[in-house]
Specification:
about 450 residues; mainly beta; Immunoglobulin-like; 2 domains; 13-stranded parallel sheet; twelve-stranded parallel sheet; 1 helix; T9SS type A sorting domain-containing protein; Pectin_lyase_fold/virulence; Secre_tail; PbH1
């Protein structure tokens, strides 16, 4: 398949069939068209396959992958102006794809509350860009065990309807852990949160969740874990500036834990700053035992439970709230950096038993002293870049020695699209741009201790 194809009505790939698309193509879907996959759909073009609406003002019905579509993989695929991608009991793989402008309804008919709606299985979503969708970017239900692997994606400005649809909005997990790793989650709309994991129906099976090395910023809240029977590890994340909705009664937590004593977790090595609240802990009812979350316990045998969080500069209404423990249970938060070396200041930034005798105590001792070190000025690397725009190759002419140089190229969403490391030849580093789609890119080039940044364009 190549060129442009138009689909005017529902197309169904039967369970016995495999459709393999390896060349660049554009597939235009009419407003009545639904792409139903019972068989195996494989898309892996040289550059991209775009699946779009004939008329962007009349979205097509979307994709549906059934349980017999196991083995389907989409790479370098753009899906836009549709009713979303729904996956039922299948482990679909999406890699290096773009999913954008998916709607939640067409006329009076609801489509999906997620641009990518997962129900059952262990689907994998990696290296994708998911933005500008009506509701959640990635969704799974509260009543179907689903354990996606969501890794190295960019999710920006989803929930354009401005409702309570977090950008990653997952229900209960299956027998394997839910993994959310290395993603960039940036909000724009006041009612949309960042990442939510919930067990709203009280399912007895335990959901295992690993949330690590993500950047979550500018959402209504950062990360929320809601309900019981959830075991979470939240490590090495940067959770900042989740304060875009000024109503501190409805959000603003960097991390929120709300549930029962069967919700347990470890929080370590995170940076949590400039949220309306750094961390909030709540119980699901006045009679329930609260979640059991550790923010650092030096007596623990769990090697992850080491603290090493930075919790600072969180607050609202003129008051700093780095932790707000709104439960009667005591918690440990040892070996953390609170942005100050004063125990009195740390105490003033935590709301717990000394502020209300009905609340549990937050054990923040010992704490790590904040060390402010002078940083040497960054050395600038002087170079010339040509041709710009580039077509097949781009040259970086360096004024320094023949020492090895490292080049990192990013697209406009901040996703790394190419890296290159080599020693310059005659003072020049020549890099191929043939694998880059036409457009504008930024770069960072480092040689020894000096760095240069800039932009270049690719044109064909």
């Amino acid at each position: 398949m190549g060129g442009t194809v138009q689909v005017n009505d529902t197309i169904r790939l039967s369970a016995r069939d495999t459709l393999d698309i390896r060349s660049n193509a554009t597939i235009k879907m009419a407003s009545l068209a639904l792409f139903y996959v019972d068989g195996v759909l494989l898309i892996n073009p040289r550059d991209s396959v775009k699946i779009t609406a004939v008329d962007p003002t009349k979205p097509f019905q979307g994709f549906w992958f059934s349980a017999t579509s196991e083995g389907s993989r989409l790479r370098k695929t753009v899906v836009e102006y549709g009713g979303g991608i729904k996956v039922v009991d299948a482990s679909l793989e999406l890699d290096s794809c773009v999913v954008r402008y998916q709607v939640a309804s067409i006329g009076t008919k609801a489509t999906n509350s997620g641009a990518i709606s997962l129900s059952g299985g262990t689907p994998r979503i990696t290296n994708c860009r998911i933005y500008g969708n009506a509701r959640s970017g990635i969704l799974s239900p509260s009543n179907r065990p689903t354990s996606p692997i969501i890794r190295n994606n960019v999710l920006v400005a989803n929930s354009t309807e401005n409702g309570n649809w977090p950008q990653i909005n997952l229900g209960i997990g299956g027998t394997t852990p839910i993994i959310i790793q290395g993603n960039l989650v940036v909000g724009r709309y006041l009612m949309a949160g960042g990442i939510s994991i919930s067990n709203l129906l009280g399912t007895s099976a335990v959901s295992q969740v690993q949330i690590r090395r993500n950047i979550v910023r500018n959402n209504r809240f950062g990360v929320a874990i809601v309900g019981g029977n959830i075991t979470s590890y939240i490590t090495q994340n940067v959770i900042t500036d989740n304060n875009i909705n000024p109503n501190a009664q409805t959000g603003g937590s960097g991390l929120n834990f709300n549930g029962t004593a069967t919700q347990v977790g470890v929080v370590s090595r995170n940076i949590v700053r400039r949220n309306l609240y750094g961390v909030t802990l709540q119980r699901s009812s006045t009679t329930a035992q609260p979640p059991r979350i550790s923010f650092g316990n030096l007596a623990s045998t769990d090697s992850t439970d080491v603290g090493l969080n930075l919790l600072a500069d969180n607050g609202n209404g003129g008051q700093v709230y780095d932790i707000y423990n709104n439960t009667p249970a005591s918690i440990t938060a040892e070996n953390n950096d609170w942005g100050t070396s004063s125990a009195a200041e740390i105490e003033a930034h935590i709301f717990h038993q000394p502020d209300n005798v009905a609340l549990g105590l937050v054990d923040y001792l010992p704490f790590r002293s904040t060390v402010l070190a002078a940083q040497p000025a960054e050395q600038k690397l002087h170079l010339a870049v040509y041709p710009n725009p580039a077509s097949g190759f781009i040259t970086f002419e360096l004024s320094k020695s023949a020492a090895a140089a490292e080049l990192c190229v990013l697209d406009l969403t901040g996703r790394v699209v190419a890296t290159y490391a080599a020693k310059p030849v005659n003072g020049r580093l020549v890099c191929s741009t043939q694998a880059l789609a036409p457009g504008l890119y930024t770069y960072q080039l480092t040689q020894e201790s000096a760095t240069a940044t800039g932009k270049f364009a690719v044109a064909r």
